[in-house]
Design a protein that fits this description.
By secondary structure, the protein is of the alpha+beta class. Helices cover about 30% and strands about 20% of the residues. The protein is built from five helices and six strands, in the order βββαβββαααα. Strands 1, 2, 3, 4, 5 and 6 form a six-stranded mixed beta sheet that branches. A hairpin with a 2-residue loop joins strand 1 and strand 2.
Length: about 170
């Protein structure tokens, strides 16, 4: 449903959206121009995905939208209407960590943690598409996510370890 609000001479349209965030149904009203990252953080109180560059370059805001990795700073909230959004927190199955989360912890694949939610979602998308990635495939799969702390080697090792753990399930 669309609602028009007249402010001065400008007309801003608002839309009701319904999304499933980490399995929980959520409804909210957003302006047509609202980016998904702002809807997640400000409208729905989901603060795991971080706001980094706001230009789609750093990947800190990466989430899974309909099962595919997207940079939430590059998607309008209205485009997510009716879809499932999975954040890094939603990868876990209840109290048990997802193999990616466990591997990031075990392999020391994070330092400050700012890039971690986006890295986890990008890695989850990679492993969904390619359950047996080699080092080059992992590096390519994560190329849109920047980390200023780790140098990436521990992240690559963690993704490889998680891939192995997922195959063993």
């Amino acid at each position: 449903m669309m609602i028009n609000i007249i402010i001065g001479r400008a007309v801003m349209s608002e839309h009701w959206i319904e999304v499933w965030i980490d399995g929980e149904r959520r409804r909210g009203r957003v302006e047509a121009r609202t980016l998904l990252i702002y809807a997640l953080r400000e409208q729905f109180g989901v603060t795991g995905p971080h706001i980094g560059c706001e230009t789609g370059r750093c990947g800190a805001c990466t989430v899974l939208l309909g099962g595919r990795a997207v940079k939430a700073c590059m998607v309008l909230a209205v485009q997510a209407d009716g879809q499932s959004i999975t954040t890094a927190a939603g990868l876990a199955g209840g109290e048990e960590l997802h193999p990616l989360q466990a591997a990031f912890h075990e392999r020391h694949a994070l330092q400050c943690g700012f890039c971690t939610p986006g890295m986890l979602c990008a890695a989850a998308d990679l492993l969904q598409a390619n359950p047996e990635p080699d080092e080059e495939a992992i590096r390519q799969g994560l190329r849109g996510n920047l980390c200023r702390c780790t140098g990436y080697q521990h992240i690559v090792e963690a993704v490889a370890s998680a891939a192995e753990a997922l195959r063993a399930r």
